[in-house]
Amino acid sequence: MKIIVFGATGNTGKRVLAQGIKMGYEMTAFVRNSEKLYDQLGEHSAQHVKVIVDDIMDPVSVGEALAHQDAAIIAAGHTGQGEDFVRIVDNIITQCEFQPSFSGRVWIMGGAGLLGIPYTDLIGNNLPGFPPEYKNHNRNFERLQQTQLDWSIMCPGTMIDSIEHPDPVHLHVTTETLPVLIPEMIKEYSEADIARHLFSRHQELDVAYDDVAKCMLDHIELGGSFKRKRVGLAYQSDMLVH
Length: 242
Prior knowledge:
This is NAD(P)H-binding protein. Residues 7-162 form the NAD(P)-binding domain. It comes from Cytobacillus citreus. The chain is of the alpha/beta class. It is built from eight helices and ten strands. It has helices at 13-22, 34-41, 43-46, 59-66, 83-98, 135-145, 191-200, 209-218; strands spanning 2-6, 26-31, 49-53, 71-74, 105-109, 150-154, 159-160, 169-175, 207-208, 229-237. The strands form two sheets. It has an eight-stranded mixed beta sheet with strand order 3-2-1-4-5-6-10-8, sandwiched between helices. The chain has a two-stranded parallel sheet with strand order 7-9. Helix 1 (13-22) links the parallel strand 1 (2-6) and strand 2.
């Protein structure tokens, strides 16, 4: 399987690339800086990656890079870039649509604020107190809903290098809604109180970059259970009584 990673030197992208190599996929890295990529990968791994150094905002370059790829993982940009972040995602999605030899399978990065809050019709990004730049994820999500591509949007909380767990845990994965238990009484809260409740529990959504990368690669095939879904991740104690 051939997978292209946009933003392959970033915190998420470099882990997707490294894990993809270990899983035996044919990995392509689309980057601005090849030297940074080679430094991160090491000489051995670098031999197993096709590297494209080009402008991610250039439609022709992106379109050519997508030719004959089975999947694309968009890990480029961040919400703090504002309009540029939205344009990066829109350009790649548009070229995915136009490139006839591209399979149509796409993962993009969102955030936990895109996920639905159980017992409500709300998402975190629209609540008072959430950083306004998070709404750039909303715009990317809206763009995906306009396309016929087989997309998924990864919506983790804060991603960190690794997490020490006092008890055995497993990765709990949800679609469309937050991956933590929410009390039903939340439907009686004001939006400000809902926001405060979520902020008080934000550490429950901390997740390791490597687990985010693995989840995307484990669900990289066309027509899977995450097709056209928002995906949430959280750790759940194996001691939890079901």
